[in-house]
Amino acid sequence: MEDNYTTSHYVFPEWLDTQIREHEGRVSKIYKDSEGISTIGIGRNLEGKGLSNDEIELMFSNDKRDALNEAKGLFANFDTLDAVRQGVLIEMCFQMGRGGVSEFVNMRKAIGNGDFIDAASEMLNSKWAKQTPARAKEMANMMHSGNHIDFIV
Question: Does the pLDDT value for residue 133 go beyond 60?
């Protein structure tokens, strides 16, 4: 459904921008507004409006960057790993965050020692592997072999 009005024909005055920001507030996490609607940012109604594809891709891009930085922070030898094993660690950080991956103490030690067979075994011996078994098995195989597994949609 197209809007009858587009921003290309209307220039928001600074006072209106400021007023909306003041009235709506700025919240970086989902919260319930006065009507009980899940909201985020500056009054974004997540239930009614949701996110556009561009917004989803922007968030995904930012989240990938964050996951890369988290993986680099957790693994001192990250830059010496091949691209496939780096990718496994980035995806693990993407899914579980730095805190979740930091709990893989034995896996991290194995990767630090270049023992990818043990690292893969430790990946499968985890709560994560029980929660997302197909994903964990695929990624453990990639860690073990250093070979990318094509993802078929």
Answer: yes
What is the 3 state secondary structure string of the chain?
Answer: CCCCCCHHHCCCCHHHHHHHHHHHCCEEEEEECCCCCEEEECCEECCCCCCCHHHHHHHHHHHHHHHHHHHHHHCCCHHHCCHHHHHHHHHHHHHHHHHHHHCCHHHHHHHHCCCHHHHHHHHHCCHHHHHCHHHHHHHHHHHHHCCCCCCCC
- The predicted-structure confidence for 73-102, as pLDDT tens digits, reads as follows 999 999 999 999 999 999 999 999 999 999
Task: Give the CA distances from residue 36 to residues 5, 39, 46, 49, in Å, rounded to whole numbers and listed in that order.
Answer: 28, 9, 11, 15
Q: Which fold has domain 53-145?
A: Lysozyme (1.10.530)
Residues β-bridged to residue 24: none
* CATH 1.10.530.40 domain position(s) in the chain: 53-145
